[in-house]
Amino acid sequence: MSNFNIDLMNQLGLTKGTVATAPSSAANAISGQLNQSDFLKLMTTQLNNQDPTQPTDSSQMLAQMAQFASVSGIQDMQSSIKQLADTLVANQTMQAATLVGHQVIAAGSNAELNSNGLSAAIDLSQSTDQLIVGIYDKAGQLVKQINLGAQSQGTIPFTWNGITDGGVNAPDDIYQIKAVANINNTPQAMSTYVASNIGSVVVDSANHKIMLNTSNGDTVNFSDVKQLM
């Protein structure tokens, strides 16, 4: 930028290299920021006061205009992206509110036993000749063992009616489930999915995530839900 341009900016109380979208030149002069209107005023004043024997270099002027347009375009894009993100969060919040009361199946090991029994599933990574599920109470005691036999690779659902290995009805509570598959004569722990009701929903606006607080005491990321019922 020419010395004349710099001097004129100093007279207007503007700072070189700053860009803003303030509504008036007076406000810009106070804040030390330069908006599009101020830039055009500077350029017009420079043209009106240039030395005829040493006119302003047009390539330099074009470069300054291109630089200003680039910065202005980036600001507009950032503003648009922020508006889009805010809109998405608002839509997520509205959609999340409709999930309360629904049942989901998501990754986890804590399952709820109620009057309808206990529902869960095993994520079987390989076929097995024997799949065994153990159900444990809060004290870590095994209350029920279920032999699901040979199973092919995939998602294996199962239910428990609440009757323990001792033949009594287990109290309604939260139980831990563990699954072990015999693969190539080696017992391997398998991942499990549990069914639970959505008690409340939290929208993490900072990370744009929907978190589900479930009836079994877990907090589940909505993206980790395997099935919504």
In words, what does this structure look like?
Helix content is about 30%, strand content about 35%. It is of the alpha+beta class and about 230 residues long. It has two domains: about 5-95, no CATH class; about 105-229, Immunoglobulin-like (Sandwich). Strands 1, 2, 3, 4, 5, 6, 7, 8, 9, 10 and 11 form an eleven-stranded antiparallel beta sheet that branches. It starts with a helix and ends with a strand. Residues about 1-30 have low confidence and may be disordered.
> Structural class per helix/strand content?
alpha+beta
Low-confidence stretches: 1-31
Order of helices and strands: HHHHEEEEEEEEEEE
Helix content: 25-40%
Rounded average pLDDT: 77
**Tally of alpha and pi helices:** 4
CATH C-level class of the largest domain is Mainly Beta
Distance between the termini: 65 Å
Described by the principal axes of the CA atoms, the overall outline is elongated
Overall radius of gyration: 33 Å
The number of domains is 2
Major sheet characteristics = 11 strands, antiparallel
